[in-house]
Each structure stands twice: as C-alpha cells, then as structure tokens.
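User: I want to check something. If I give you two sequences, will you return the structure for each one separately, not as a complex?

Assistant: Yes, each is folded on its own. Here is the first sequence with its structure:
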Amino acid sequence: MLFLRAFIIGISIAAPVGPIGVLCIRRTLANGRLAGFVSGLGAASADMIYGAIAAFGLTAVTGLLVENAFWLRIAGGSFLLYLGVKTFLEKPADKPASASQGGLLSMYTSTFFLTLTNPMTILSFAAIFAGTMLGKTTGSPLVMVSGVFAGSAAWWLTLSFGVGILRDRLTQTHMAWINRISGTIIFAFGIYALIGAI
C-alpha cells in the first residue's frame, strides 16, 4: 500500500537524532509535550514541501535548491550556532513552563526553517521517490506526500510524549545540564553544517 510505504519513509527520515531531534527533546523537557510536538511539526511540514517537490517532479525548484546549497547550509549552520549558544546559556526556570501561542509559533517556524535549509533532504526524497515509480499512477504523488507528512508527524508525536514522561522528574540541576549538553550538541551540528558548506 502506497500510503503505508510513504508513512514508513516519513518516520525513517524524521527518526535519526540530528539537531532538530535534540531541539525537540529539549523543548519538550523545558516547555512540555505540546512544545516538542509543535517543533516537530515544523520539521514535518518542511519534509512535506520537499517531498512534494520531489514527488511532483518540480525539477526547476529542485535545481534551484541544489544550486544554492552553499548559502542554505551557511544560513542553517549559522542559525544552529545561535540556537546552540542560546540554549547553553539559558537558565532553567523554577518550574517547567508552558509555551504560549506566540512561543509555539516561534518554535514551529524555527524548526521549519532549519529543515528547509538542508538541501540534502530534497535529494533524499528525489532518490526515494524515483525508486517507487510514482509517475505511473494519477494521484500517487499526493498520496505519497500525505503519507510522508503523517509518518513524520507520528514520529514527533511519539517522541514528544515519550520524553514528556520524564519532565516532572527533573530538577533545576538536571535541566541546567540538559541545556548545556543540548546547546553543545546543537552548536556542534552548526559547525558541521558550516564545514560541509565550505
């Protein structure tokens, strides 16, 4: 079944723990399950856009993204450096906070932007979709893109709710160390992205 295959692809693309995963875990611990899930949805939305570009064969857009891969990596890497430092220096609150509506929008936007600035994502989708021979059946690209988004969103929902179980058991000391470790990892991903661009 095409949707099920696409669902599994969505999970497999979202599951590796990169900078987005670290960010979502940290936000879940600091602000709650909803914050982590909304952050994940930003990445899932970007995956859906890249998946649509690959599935519907928008070669001009794909070419433009690949041609500008250097600047996309620079932008994404720089933003990761900023997030890494910000996370490392952030002091834990006296008690876990709940994200406001404005805060949730910011969390969604930041992960959406970070995922979009990774041009390798479009190449991954293009390779996967080419292997499934989607062009032979009408409507298949739409089904594939929907499945990818559903799979990615399901992963972020599972991750945020799973990590959320630990939230109430953490002290300020734990959160301080989580901020430092998360910030360091995110900063390292930023350095890696900039080196990759060069």
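And separately, the second sequence with its own structure:
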Amino acid sequence: MSVPLPYYLGLSAVLFAIGVIGVLSRRNVIVVFMSVELMLNSVNLTLVAYSSFLGDITGQALVFFVIAVAAAEAAVGLAIVISLYRNKQTVNIDEMNILKW
C-alpha cells in the first residue's frame, strides 16, 4: 500500500505552518533558526513527494542542494548568534540592536 500524495502535501503544509508560527511568535534566535529549518524540511518533503509521484529524480536532486544551503545557513547563523551572545549576553531578538546604524 502506498501513501497518497495529498497526505504528504498536508503534512508538509502543517510543518510549514508550524515553522511560520515559530518564526513570527518567538523571540529566541535559536528557536527562530529551528523554525526556519522546519520550513526548509517541509519544502524538502514536498519536493520528494512530487518527485516520487511524477517518477522524476529532479526533485530529489534538488533536495540535496536545499540541505546544503540549510547546513550553511545553520553554521553561519550559529556563528552570528555566538558572536552576539558574547557581546550582549542574550539571545533575545528584541535586545539585539548591534546591527543597526
């Protein structure tokens, strides 16, 4: 038995919505980064579902590029968070105004 495509798309939409809510409602930078990663993973799920449904490998190949971008984003983002924490002693987004002019 195979799982129908709308189930994958529904799960992906729910994961993406949870990620958007996490980005918009949280003030902790680490939680915001985790929410962005959740949104990227929901897009990956959609790409793999459509790739499997259409019988084409292009979507699965694109997932590898998205994962590489997500890994680079996580590494750079974590380095920025560590640097800001050393200067401001907080990871709260509202208190980080060091990048303003």
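Because they were folded independently, the notes below concern the second chain alone. The CA atoms of residues 26 and 57 lie 36 Å apart. The chain has a mean pLDDT of 88.
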